[in-house]
């Protein structure tokens, strides 16, 4: 069986660190925790789990801190998570199985990352990240913020998932935005990836016109991950929607299709735009596109709602207005399979029940 070092970077995580470490402590053979300047009880909690607690002077560079943490590892493989992540019991069992049967020739393992959930605790937003890497390969983290682990060789895509459980905090942190803007003030040139994430930060902070400007710069570059290009188009559409520019919103959504098949989110948003204008046939076409796409083949961000219950719920509305009552009910039934307790779907259930009772009474 291979051995695993857990490597983490932390700062002021006393509220969540214990929860995180309890979920993973028996899955790994070594725990390395690098503190970047905590002023709370983070290091005290960390020392309950490991002697390998190190200080690292923060320099607005997440990759530098993560690479330092990786350098302290001594086991066959290095595993990383953040303090506000956990491994659920189901995924703990999958992790154990992975560890037991992992072949030494595997250089890196990707795992799903669930970062958003519905009210029933089902993941609604997920993507993959490289989580487990062979130490001797000396893979490096790249990028001061929104960093990524650059890997190569033999890759295994596992069924293990890491669950993000962020503690609610007031307001939105401008830390990442400040890091980017400091770099720009110094005259640094952003990589395509950094330009994309800088644009995201601008959008998330309501600086829509500036975000549009930088998304356009990113999209004009020949370099850049295709999934980031698609997401940039989707985010452009969101910016234009916030600015009240419907024409540009549609243009940005359609623009995403030049990179790959329509993403379910794009199809549903196009369907919504036509539904708002009561153009039901066009709306139906787009919602059907959303259902047809195999999201398991998408390497980037996936929001499950747009390929499951949501398009069916919207199709129900469209077919009803077109007079296709039976087809509307069938779409409602499919939406209900995904979210049986959703208030909107329960409302539709009550509506259809009343409709059928009235229809039966007429006969």
TrEMBL record:
Domain spans labelled Glycosyltransferase 2-like: 5-146
**Keyword vocabulary terms for this entry:** Transferase
Report a single Gene Ontology molecular function: transferase activity
Descriptive protein name: Glycosyltransferase
């Amino acid at each position: 069986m291979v051995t695993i070092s857990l490597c983490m970077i932390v700062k002021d995580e006393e509220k969540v660190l214990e929860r995180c470490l309890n979920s993973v402590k028996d899955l790994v053979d070594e725990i390395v925790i690098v503190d970047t300047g905590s002023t709370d009880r983070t290091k005290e909690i960390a020392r309950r789990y490991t002697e390998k607690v190190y200080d690292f002077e923060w320099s607005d560079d997440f990759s530098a801190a993560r690479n330092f943490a990786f350098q302290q590892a001594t086991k066959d493989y290095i595993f990383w998570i953040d303090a506000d992540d956990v491994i659920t019991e189901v995924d703990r069992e999958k992790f154990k199985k992975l560890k037991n049967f992992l072949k030494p020739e595997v250089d890196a393992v990707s795992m799903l990352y669930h970062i958003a959930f519905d009210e029933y605790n089902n993941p609604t937003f997920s993507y993959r990240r490289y989580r487990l890497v062979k130490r001797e390969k000396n893979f490096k983290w790249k990028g001061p913020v929104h960093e990524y682990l650059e890997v190569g060789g033999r890759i295994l895509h596992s069924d293990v998932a890491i669950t993000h459980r962020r503690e609610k905090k007031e307001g939105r942190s401008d830390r990442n935005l400040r890091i980017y803007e400091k770099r720009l003030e110094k005259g640094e040139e952003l990589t395509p990836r950094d330009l994309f994430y800088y644009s995201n930060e601008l959008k998330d902070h309501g600086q829509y016109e500036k975000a549009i400007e930088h998304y356009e710069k990113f999209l004009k570059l020949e370099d850049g991950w295709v999934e980031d290009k698609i997401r940039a188009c989707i985010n452009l559409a969101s910016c234009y929607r916030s600015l009240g520019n419907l024409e540009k919103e549609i243009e940005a959504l359609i623009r995403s299709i030049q990179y790959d098949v329509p993403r379910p989110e794009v199809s549903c948003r196009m369907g919504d735009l036509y539904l708002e204008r009561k153009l039901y046939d066009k709306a139906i076409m787009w919602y059907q596109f959303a259902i047809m796409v195999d999201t398991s083949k998408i390497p980037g961000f996936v929001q499950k709602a747009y390929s499951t219950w949501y398009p069916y719920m919207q199709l129900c509305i469209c077919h009803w207005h077109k007079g296709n009552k039976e087809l509307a009910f069938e779409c409602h039934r499919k939406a209900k399979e995904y979210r049986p307790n959703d208030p909107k779907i329960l409302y539709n259930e009550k509506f259809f029940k009343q409709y059928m009772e009235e229809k039966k009474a007429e006969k």
